[in-house]
Write a structure and sequence with these properties.
It is a single chain. The chain has about 190 residues and is an all-alpha fold. The chain has 2 domains: about 90 residues, Rna Polymerase Sigma Factor, Chain: A (Orthogonal Bundle), CATH 1.10.1740.10; about 70 residues, Arc Repressor Mutant, subunit A (Orthogonal Bundle), CATH 1.10.10.10. α4 packs across α8. The model has no long low-confidence stretch (mean pLDDT about 85).
Length: about 190
């Protein structure tokens, strides 16, 4: 599409002609989705972010300066939406990790163990499925309350290795619990 045609379409959309926005969407959709996919390679989010970008662009089309690069403007909007989604995902993951740690501590303290809690049951199943060295790390951290430094010394590893491995184990447990909860909800 020529820049003149694009500018003409933008002016028409700014004047309130929604049907002209469809042509702009068709012109930019594939490049915008490729841009999103390179930064957030999660299939269902690619379309969602692209859609949100176009919705935002439509509602703010009067803020766009005709004659500038519409593609760059759309990519800037998409980038901000990707950043927002990434931060939201990080917050959710952090909350899930805190809850998982809470459950680990609860299951380590036998007097506070609540066997009827499905999350605790799933957690026990997931922990039982771990390799011995990962279960040992969890026992040292949550039953023996050892610090990363103490664990590193006892295992002849670096503190960074201990922290990284614990983080990976917790992430794996979180995924395992989510999978079990999802399977239970389907049955």
């Amino acid at each position: 599409m020529s820049d003149d045609r694009e500018d003409e379409l933008v002016r028409a959309v700014q004047a309130g002609r929604l049907e002209d926005f469809e042509e702009l969407i068709h012109q930019h959709a594939s490049r915008l989705k490729a841009f999103v996919a390179m930064r957030l390679p999660i299939p269902h989010l690619i379309d969602e972010i692209a859609h949100e970008t176009f919705v935002f662009a439509y509602h703010h089309i009067n803020d766009f300066e005709v004659g500038t690069d519409l593609g760059k403007w759309l990519r800037a909007i998409a980038f901000n939406l990707i950043r927002k989604e990434t931060l939201r995902h990080q917050r959710v993951a952090k909350h899930q990790e805190r809850y998982l740690e809470h459950c680990l501590v609860q299951s380590a303290a036998k007097d506070e163990f609540r066997p009827e809690d499905p999350v605790v049951i799933y957690l026990e199943e997931c922990v039982d499925a771990l390799p011995d060295h990962q279960r040992t790390l969890l026992r040292m951290k949550y039953r023996l309350s050892q610090s990363s430094k103490e664990m590193a010394r006892a295992l002849d590893q670096s503190e960074a290795w201990v922290r990284t491995t614990l983080c990976r184990v917790r992430a794996g447990l979180r995924d395992c619990i989510e999978a079990k909860a999802e399977a239970a909800s389907r049955s």
